[in-house]
Every structure is written in structure tokens, then in C-alpha cells.
Structures
1.
Amino acid sequence: MSEPEAQSVLPNEAPLPPRVDLVTAAVFFAVGIAIVYASWRMPTFYEQLQQTYTAPGLVPALYGIVIVLLAIWLAARAIGSGALRRGDERMRAPREGYSNLRLALATALCLAFAVGMVGRLTFWLATAIFVFLFILLFEWRKDQPWRERAIRIASAALIGGGTGAAVVLVFTRLFLVRLP
Amino acid sequence: MLEGLSQFGSAFAGFMTPGTLFNVLWATFLGIVIGALPGLTATMGVALMTTLTFTMGRDQAILVLVCVYVGAIYGGSRSAILLNIPGTPASACSTLDGFPLARQGLAGRAMGISTSGSWLGTLFGIVCVALFTPLLAEAALSFQSYEFFWIGVFGIVIAGTLAGGDPLKGYIAGFLGLWIATIGQEPHYNYHRFTYGWADLSGGIGLLPALVGVFGVAEVLTAMRGPAYRVTSKAVDSILPRLADVWKYKRTIFRSGAIGTFIGVLPGLGEDTAAWSSYAAARRASQEKEKFGKGSVEGLMAAETGESACVPGAIIPVLTLAVPGSAPAAALMAAIMIHDFKPGPMLMIETPQLFYQIVAMLVIADMAKLVFGLTLVRPLLWILLVPRERLMPIIFVLCTVGAFAITQRVFDIYVMLFFGLVGFVMRELKFPMAPLILGLVLGELLEQNLTRGLVISSGSVAPFFTRPVSGVLAAITIFAILWSIPPAQRKIKAGVRGLFGRGRRPA
């Protein structure tokens, strides 16, 4: 059995290829410049207190400048590690058991629930449909016999309906929380 | 002293009612389950429960959150031992020796070590909370804007430096968090910054939706992308902690308790750093170094004691400086503020009963954790058998309810989604998330104190460096930044070596 990797952000993880860091630095450089520009355009209200230390743009501009400097530091480090060297890009080996398809499906389902269903359908119904679809799609196997597939569909429907009912009962009756 | 003891006694007695004890039991159990399930973290648990308990009485709500926090940090060790996957990032260190012990057929003994280490660690931390919080709060009363400004910057820099991984990326995440905190109405002229006419943004970005996004939605996506986990050991030997283990490693327990509490006090670092630091210190001092990583009882004891001592430690700066010591403590601080308490130096003067109540809550939660640790083995194994395909959609629904519940704005669900997606991408790019959240928490404190300090000093930055406490904090901050630059670090090391080498040379 291949041992699954631990959660991310562990100190012993392998570093990213330098080119990824260079692109990241470019994004943060742009973000920092945009923050400084937007802060610069803010009014100073000098005429009200005769000083600029409380100007609305002062503090965000400071943060923007720091982000720009840190992005330059990150870019310089990435270039120093060979980000611009041709043919020296260390590609990361795909991690065993990780799937971008599963990630895309989970993201799409979560967005469909939170943006598409919540507020448009009754919450218990939205929850039931979301949980049912999530379980059904992730547990779907091409080579499944029909009997097993029917059981999985029934159990997904049961968990979906049960979750919808439980969420509404627990939160509105027990915790007295309003649902979207 | 006697007055303090009597206040603590009355706070403790106040919680000894059947209804409160029922809350303690379910909240600690829920915390352990949240901690044990990979993909659910203590931060997410506390953030979610903050939104779901805000209609409860404030003492009961904070008690529930403390129990969830204490339980979740302990629960993470169960999956670390049985699955080789940390239930929370804090338990990552426990996999190093916990899982090898389980593979040797000693899963029960490993859980017993985890229970005793965690219980004693939290107890050690509680004693430190009781002893040092009043002293620190008294010292903090003399702090002015300059000191509070440096506490904010120091928090971001230390969290970036020591949060694990790349300090530079930690700083970027921290300053990004500080900038996000400036979105919305600013404090002096009510000018709307970075809102671009979007009315929902004028109130700023809510901490809890952001926390639920970064630690909930991002975890759901990470769990669904990664490989499925499997329980490798279903046969469990006796889980009763052995007194011989505790006695033999008493020095390790004491050392790890002290390290864990100290790391907890430092802003934004949290339980994972505490566990790794305690583990490293135990390995350095151990006479059985070769056993570390292969099923060392001492290693597991150090990691568990350190991470659990960090929980009370992280609450100390919340109560005294309004600066969270860890990400779950940030959620706890938000809850304390939602319930109309004012964390910070004035808390010990305005509402001292909250301090005694929190000490009592920690003691009660620690006891409940011990009870569950000794009894809940089979039920937790069953819970760990629930496939992620069935668990994660339910977690996402809870995240959605949690983000919505406090302000009842659909906008907060979008904030949660945004932070979930951004948090996921940043984690993939190896950015630590604790500094981002700390930046979001400290943004207001930092801005208010920087501008106030500049106004008082008529624009002079000298008081930020010349006042004694400010000067020390500034020096530590600058040193921490220099230390994270490899050439500067090498020069500092060479300088120190030269200094001491010259000193030892015979004349």
C-alpha cells in the first residue's frame, strides 16, 4: 500500500520549482503596485485636520510598498535559484493519488450549491440536492453492477435528505440560527 | 492571591450545573471528532461553532468554544496514530512516532501516551495562564500606541518566520492580510477604501467568513483532491496511560509544556509549531535519539504535550493584548468580541470574571478530554471509517451556514468562497495561512496605533524606536527579518562565532 502524504504546509515538504515562485512574485508585484496606486488616488483630508498622518491611503500604501518589496525579494530569489535558466526547470513529479479532476468536480459542485442554489431554493432542498449529487458523482463507477449502483443512489438520496432535514432542525430549533 | 483563588472557585462552581456539564460533554466530543477527521481543523471547528452558538448565553457559548478547541487539538492525534494522517496540522508531528507504534501493534499504548501527554500539557498551560496573564495584563497597561504598533508588526513577522515553511511567503501572506483588513470604511473620516461602490464591502471583510473559507472550504477542496485515507489498525491494545511512561519522561513533559506554552504566547504561531519545537528539543536532549521516528514513546509524548500546552498559551495574549496566539485562538477572540467582551489590557479591569471563567473552562475541558480519551476508542474508529465523499459535502453545508449565520448576509457566503479558493491556491503555492489570518485580525490594531502614534509625535518616528519596550520589539522584529535572509543569517552566525571564539582564546 502506498502511504498517503500528510496534509500540506508541513515544514518537511519539497519546495516549488523556482519558475512557479517567479510567476507568484509577478502576481504579488502587480497586486502591490495596484494597492499603492489606489491608495495614492485617495483623498488626504488635509484641510480638515491640517495633517496627513490620518490620510485614508497612508497605511494601505505602506502595505502595498512592503508587498512590492517582498515580491521583488521573492523574484530575485527565484531567479537566483534558476527560474530563468533554460531547460533547467525542475518539474514536480505528480503526487500519487492526487487528482485535479476530483478537485474541479468538487469546486464546481460547491460553487453550484453556494452561488446557484442557496437563496434560490429552500435551504433543506438545496442541501439535499447538493449532498445527493456530491456523493453520487464521487462514488460513481463505470463498471458497477446495476444492483450495487441502485443501492448507492438510494443511500446518497437518504444521506442527502437526512442532512437537509437535520441541518434545518438542528440549526433553526436547537441553535436558533437563521438559514440562508 | 486568595481573592484570585476564591474568584476561580466561584467561576468553577458556576459551571457545575447539569446543563453546563452537558454542553461540556457534547462540545468536547464534537471537538475530538472534528480534530480526528482529516480535513477538519480546530480553527474551522471554533469558527463554525462561534457562528452557531452566538444565540447562547455568552458564558455558555465561550465554554463550548474552549471545549471544541481543547478537544480538536487532542483529537488530531487519533488519526495521526491510526491513519498516519494528522487530523489537524497540529498533529503532523505525532505521526512520526504514533504511527510506527500503531504498526508495532501498540496503537492503544500510543493513544494512552497521547492522552496523558495532552492532558498534562494542557494542565501545565493552564497553570501558566493563571500565573502570567495578570502579570502581562498589568505590564500591558503601560503600553502606548508605539508598543501596540510593534506588537502588531512583531506578530506578523514572527508568524511568518516560524509558522513553518518559507518565511518570505509568510511575510507576504501577513501583509496581504493586513491590506485586506483595510478594505471598507476607515476609522478617521469614514472614507470607503477599496469598495468601488459595493455597499456590502463598506463594513469590511468579516473575520469568521474568511476563517471558515481558509480553514474550511480550502480543507474540503484539499481533501477531495488528495488520496483517500484508510484505517490501518483496527485492533487496539489497552489505551490506559501507563504511569511508568509519565514518570520516566517527566522532564520531557515539563520541557515540552514550557515550550508549548511559550510558542502559544507568541502571536500567530500555534499548535503545529509548538509540537515540532517540543519534538526537536526532546530529540536533542534524549538519550534514545535513535528511536525517534521509529516509534519513540518520548517523541510522541513531547509532541502531544507541546501542542496541548500551546492551547492555553495561545489564549494568554488574547486576554492581555487582544493578539491571538494561534489561528483557533483568533476565532476564539472573535467570539469573545461578538459576546461583548473587550479582549486586551483593560479586560482584567473591566471584566476580570472572564479571566477566571476561562481558566475554569480550560480545566473542565481538559478533564472532559481525559474522560473521552480513556473511553472513546471504538466510536472514533467508526467515525474515521466514514468516507470523505460522504463527509465533505456535509462539511461544506456547515461552512455555508456558519458563514451566513452571524450577519445573515449572502455576501458573507461569497466571502467564504473567495477565501476558500484563494486559500487553497496559496496553500498549494506553499504560503502559510496563519500570517494571513493574523494580518486580518491585527489590521485594525496596527493602523489605529500607527496613525495615533504619528499624530501624537507630530510625524516623528523616533518614539517608535526610542521607548524601551518599543525599541526591544523593533530590534527583535528586525533581527527576525534578517535571520530569514540566508546571507544575513550566515553573517550573524559568523559574527557570533567570532565574538565567542575570540573570547575563549587564551591571551
2.
Amino acid sequence: MSIRGKAAIVGFYETPTRKEFPDRTTYGLMAEVARGAIIDSGLRKEDIDGLIGPESLNSIELAEALGMQPRFTSSMTVHGASGAASIATAAEAISAGIVNYVLCIFGESRPRSSSRLTSQAQAGPQLPPPSRTTEWEVPYGPVIAMNGWYGLMKQRHMFEYGTTQEQFAKAVVDQRFNAANNPNAVWYDQPVTIDDVLNSRFTNDPLHLLESVMPCSGAHAVIVTSAERAKALPNPPVYVLGVGGPATHHDIIYTDDDMTTTPVVDSAPVALQMAEVNIRDIQLAQFYDCYTILEMSCLEDAGIVPKGEIGPFYESTDTTYNGEFPINTDGGQIGAGQSGGTGGGFRHIVEATRQIMGRGDERQVEEADLCLVNG
Amino acid sequence: MTTTEYTKPLPRPAEPELTEPFWEGTKRGELLIPRCSFCDEFFWYPREACPRCLQPGWEWTAVSGHARLHTYTVVYQPAHPVFNDDVPYAFAVIQLDEGVRMMSNIVQCPVEDLEINMPLEVVFDSVTDDWTLVKFKPA
């Protein structure tokens, strides 16, 4: 039994994504977007009987803070893929008849950078618990955040396929163009050029700072319900046609046989087959983009272009919302910011919903009925 | 011999008993890698059960120390500030001739001379009396 078309997203809401919201708490942001998504869907809070949130918050505590009594809760624990995975989980629970209206909600108000530094200084150096990482990687001097792993992957992609720095930079330029026209984006009204990207510093060669996300504050929510119930609601339903999602490892990409091939090579065919959609029919894409190299490798692995050809694709294709194949039309995380609480990976779901509902305003893509989202 | 204190992070094993033979081996100048007694394959990182067979029978097996540079990144902004004096340095994925890949540093090689697939050989770096790290240099 397939879940094709059995569930639909019927409303959404998000806060702007900003470096910080000094006077806001995580629960405050979550309450704002929960309320916004419920109102946008034409529902009442009492209607919501399912709640799916980030791993950073226990889902029952989240229900308690939001004053909800759902009969189904879950916290997604697949990091950046959590947002997309929440839609699959919601669609599965709805198709199984377990719940009627699921609130999928992700976000965080990060501590102010000044107070972060103060508390770090007071606490002294904090050692993480011993792990595979602290034994086999930390002694060799890893890079900040996840930049090291993606620098290693990028170097290998450039070696195997001849992908150039300019081609990676073009992906950033297109997304920053989209973000420049998205008032919710942290980089609103701040487009960049290829030279800006190439002249930004290396956190680690070959990875430039402007190819990396900035951790931000913000929250995002959608409501999922059955296709049947969706018909009675005010917004045009955004049907979930297919889902697929293997997860193979946490971060240890270096043990892969092929370091530049992602699990999308397995998940995309599953989703497309369930949807009964050919990759050629996809009109726009919202793809997880913590770093250019990950997004670009995933686009290849989904079959948007053959493996190794994403560089020339970006070079010759306008991927802005005006272009022939729009990608990350809200700016993605690289342009709009990476909300904490895995909200960054959920913005792709929200933007896909916005585009398919035809509510993209000046960023509206003309033909936006079939969107492929990767988390 | 200098007595300068080593301030960088030392290995902190999650399962010290499991990996003690590896670290004892490095002090003797031996590179020991887990090799499954059932499927005969080497694997990395060490864990109680072979990730292919999910069976616990495996042996620490001495390997040649010959390797190739699978990929690398030249670090300018380390996660840990104690590495700041070393930048730029290579944080690298090494592929041993026996097939497994591990993280390490490339030493005795300017970062400009690094090339993917360059042949490497193991270097044992005794950073303290208790810890000898496994690094690689051009072969």
C-alpha cells in the first residue's frame, strides 16, 4: 500500500530567520508559528491531534508548552533531514488513520552571541563525552562546525569531476539573489557576486565562508492532514506524492566507498517511484544546503543531472526563481539562514508549500506544481 | 629532548578497553587494524562487532603502513583554538593499502605539495609518554 496523495500540507507559517531574537525564547517562537500555521490552515488549536518536532525538544514537553493534547507525538532525530522526515512521518500516521491534523514544527531562539561567549568563558573549556570522534578525529585538529567534512567532500568532487570554484560560487550567487528578495531571509537585500564568494576567506581550503550556512534563530511550521479533510480547508492542498529516506551514517562520510555520493541516490528513486513522477517532470527543487557541496552532490544523486555534471549545470543554468530550473527559491539556508532546532532543514518544506500554493509573491515560480524536496 | 607540554587534545576513547591494543601498538611502532575472522575484511573504526557480519570475532592485525591520500582539506579555522598556531595544516582522509580509510594529518609536506592519491607512509608521533598518534608523510 502506497501513501501516494493520501496526505496534504494545508497551511504554513514562519518567523523571519535572524542572527538572534534577543528578547524571544524558543518556546515563544514555536508558539508564534504554531498559532500562525493553525490560523493559516483554517483550523482551531483543538483540531490538532499530532505533533512532530525537533530532536532538541522532547515532543511531550513541546506539547505541554504549546498547551496541546496530541495523541501522536514524535521528535525527529535525523538532523538536517528532520524537517523533511517529519512530513513523511506525518503522512504515514495520517494514512494509517492514527491522526487527523499534524503540526510539524521546528525552530530555536539561540542564546545571544554575547551571552554565549560569557557563559563559555565562565564554564571554561567543555569537553564533550568520549566518542568515536574524540578518539579518532579530534586529535588531528578538525575544522569548525561541519566545515571539515564538507571541505573533504568538495576536494574529492573537484578531483573526480573537475568541478570548479566558480561553479560552486554560482550556486551561492543564485541563492543569495533569491534571499535578497525574501524579507524573511537573514541575507535579505544583500546579493553577492561570484568574486565575493571567491574572495571570502577559506575556513578550510577548498571551502569558502560564503559557501557555508550561518547558524540563526527562527521557527517554521506546517499542518498536514488527509487529502479528504484538506478539501474542506481554505488553502489549495499541497499533496505528498512520494517519500523516501534511508539514513546511512551520522557524519563519518570518510568511510564511504564513494565520498561524493550521498544517500539521496537511494532515497530519490523511492520517492519518485511512489509519486509516479519522472525526474524530468520536476519543476523546481528545495534541497538541503548546509554547504554548496552537499546540495550539489544531492542534486546529482537525485538525477537532476548525471553524476559529476552539477558544476557545468550551475554554470549554464539560471537557478533563481526567475530561471529555467529554480532551486531553493527562498534563498535556502545559505541565503536565508539556518534556523536552529533543525529549522534550517524545514525551510525547504515551507518554501515548497508556499510555491505550490502560489503564494511566493515576487518570488513565485510560474510553473510550480511538482517540487522535489531533500532534507 | 624538549619537555614542552603537549596542549592539544589527546585521544579520548569511548571504550578504552576495546581500543587499548591499538594505542599500545602505536607506541611500539605498529599499526593494528581490526580484521574480521568471519568475512576476512579489515574495518575502521574499531567496534565490538564487525559492521559487515555483526559478529564479534575479529583480530588486531598489523598492516603495512602504506597508504594513499584519499582527500584532504587545508585548515585555517580549527574547531579547537590550540591548533591555531599550526595553520595551515592538512586534515586528511587516508586510505590504507589494506582498504580502510581513517582521519589523520599529513606531516613533512608543505600544504602546496599535497595531491589526491599521493603515496604515503605511516609516521608514529609520540606526543606524550602515554600517547603516540598515527600520522602520515609522503612515501
